Here is the input.
Amino acid sequence: MKLLAIDTATEACSAALYIDGNILEKYEVAPRQHAGLILPMVDALLAEAETELASLDGLAFGRGPGAFTGVRMATGIIQGLAFASDLPVVPISTLAAMAQGAADQSNTILSAIDARMGEIYWAIFSVGEDGLVTPLSDEQVSKPDTLSIELKSECFGVGTGWGSYENKLSSYAGTKLKGFDANRFPRASDILTLAINEFKQGNGVHAKDALPVYLRNKVTG
Amino acid sequence: MRVLGIETSCDETGIAIFDSEKGLLADALHSQVDLHKTYGGVVPELASRDHVRRIIPLIEKALADAGCAGKDLDGVAYTAGPGLVGALLVGTSVGRSLAYGWDIPAVAVHHMEAHLLAPMLEEESPSFPFLALLVSGGHTQLMQVNAAGDYLLLGESLDDAAGEAFDKTAKLLGLGYPGGAAMSELSKKGNSGRFKFPRPMTNRPGLDFSFSGLKTHALTTVRDNDDDEQTRADIARAFVEAVVDTLLIKCKRAMQETGITTLIAAGGVSANIQLRAGLKKMVTEQGGRVYFPRPEFCTDNGAMIAYAGYLRLKAGQKEPLAFAAHPRWPLAKPA
Here is the structure.
């Protein structure tokens, strides 16, 4: 199986290529520079692997939550690539991708992205025996001191939300908190890890149904 | 050469396919007017969210209407600015990656350049050089067009765009949003001469405009008079006459100053029938000729982007893989 994944939802920009068991990745933390970086990354990966878009089996992208314009950029890029090459798409949660990246840290992961306006995008994941994360909660946008789901086991935190609201999130997790990494962003290699499984189950969608998930839907005054 | 054009700079998703031999093969549009109506203006985030839902279905429709596939295209043109940055990024992302996926060139188009070239899509089209009056909700500019890509800015609005003044005054008169067309209709029932609005900046030299004063004048006129249907119509009449007159005076002055007798008018306000009639009369009297796009190409559309993109591609221009949106992007050098 050959898959390409991209993500531009947060300060980080990344693209990754999966070819029969191997993952190649380009990753850069470069706020507001994603439009200049993302397609050159894709092109470089395909060249390194000596393959082309049309020989791939599918595409995946970080469908949010994250910065609205960033999430839409990845969506637009994937829509264009998928439509042009007639490839199926698997949209992957950026919160799940971040949790997947920390899946070796604990059996429970709390992903939290700083959503500005005093809020975080967050969700809790459990790590299965196959090493893949699955959600234990809905994805939500809320104030960091209103998390109400009871943590049943030791937990590790990831994402910029942990940097911005360390005290509030630490006091929520209490003694169950094993540690956190506030510098972890969604990245395309983690999106691939989750997407491989989705493609095996035949869960790809058409380009026009590859759409963002914003979580924050009140956008008018 | 066959080019797909993508327009997402504001509140219309426009997709079209232009063929240099056969002309326009497809022209698909989704207007978000209803989406923004409740808010009395375009909400940028809502606009972006709608573009990303509509764009691929519209591209599919345009390709089906044209009876062609990606492999039959020679380029993808998309509006890269000026406009709302979030909205522009949808079209630029999809446009650039489509071109990459199809392995054909991509080209970034200037929205206002596309507007001023829109009359070239008509059977009777102007030849260079000509003067262009660009009048929309976001722009009021007088431009000297020497050739495609060679533009000289002769004058522009120092405050509100003409279309913005139309919409704001329409709102004052209770005509809803966007109210430009309704204003034009209402003004036909009005009596000329009951109210006299100023013709801003016409009694001094130069080709710049100012429309914010007209809006204020409308506000005080509404306040100082009875609120009945005839009075509203009379105010609308006085306002439309003032805007049209002002535009005519500056266009005439530009023709006299440059010696260029061919004029085009483009942008949403150029669909206004009073303006069209006035321009035809004035330009004919000056011994010149005036050209307009068909009314549906006065407002934002994909056809003008496909056409401007075709000219740019033909001239050898193309975009690298690193793309960009330019929310502010001057088209012409100042005169």
Notes: The radius of gyration of chain B is 20 Å.
